[in-house]
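Title: Comparing notes on inverse folding

I've been comparing how different people in this forum approach sequence design from structure. To keep things fair, I'm posting one structure and asking everyone to reply with a full sequence. Here's the target:
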C-alpha cells in the first residue's frame, strides 16, 4: 500500500549517457540533476534545487525530446522503500518499480507482488530513453 503519491514532470537538457542533465518538477519543488555514466547499476549523481518557475520554462522551451509525466507512489515493503512510477500521456499504462539498493550486492529479501520482469539493464526503460518518445514493450 502506497504511503505517498507525488506528481512529477521531467525532461532532459542532455540525454548523453556520459552526462545526463535532467530538469524535474516534483510536487511543488524543482531540481536540476546531473548524472555521470553507468558503472554497473550505479552512477555518480548531483542534484540541486532550482526555482520552479525556471524549471517550468526549461521544460517548455529547452528540453530535448518529450517531457515525461508520471505519478510516483512510495511503497514500503519488506523493510525497503519502493518507488513505483505510473506514467501518463503517451506512456499511459507503463508502470516501473524501483528500490534504492543499500549497496550493489544487496538483494531485497522478498519482492512485492507488483514486481514483474527485471529491466534495470534494459536501456529502453531508462527515463532518458523514454523521453525520446519511443514506447518500449510493456511487460
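Reply #1:
Here's my take.
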Amino acid at each position: 500500500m502506497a504511503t505517498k503519491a507525488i506528481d512529477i514532470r521531467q525532461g532532459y537538457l542532455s540525454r548523453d549517457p556520459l552526462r545526463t542533465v535532467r530538469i524535474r518538477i516534483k510536487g511543488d519543488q524543482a531540481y536540476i540533476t546531473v548524472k555521470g555514466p553507468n558503472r554497473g547499476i550505479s552512477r555518480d549523481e548531483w542534484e540541486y534545487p532550482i526555482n520552479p518557475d525556471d524549471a517550468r520554462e526549461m521544460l517548455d522551451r529547452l528540453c530535448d525530446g518529450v517531457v515525461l509525466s508520471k505519478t510516483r507512489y512510495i511503497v514500503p515493503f519488506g523493510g525497503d522503500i519502493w518507488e513505483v512510477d505510473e506514467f501518463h500521456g503517451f506512456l499511459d499504462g507503463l508502470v516501473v518499480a524501483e528500490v534504492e539498493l543499500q549497496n550493489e550486492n544487496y538483494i531485497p529479501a522478498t519482492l512485492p507482488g507488483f514486481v514483474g520482469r527485471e529491466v534495470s539493464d534494459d536501456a529502453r526503460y531508462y527515463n532518458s530513453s523514454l523521453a525520446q518518445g519511443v514506447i518500449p514493450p510493456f511487460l
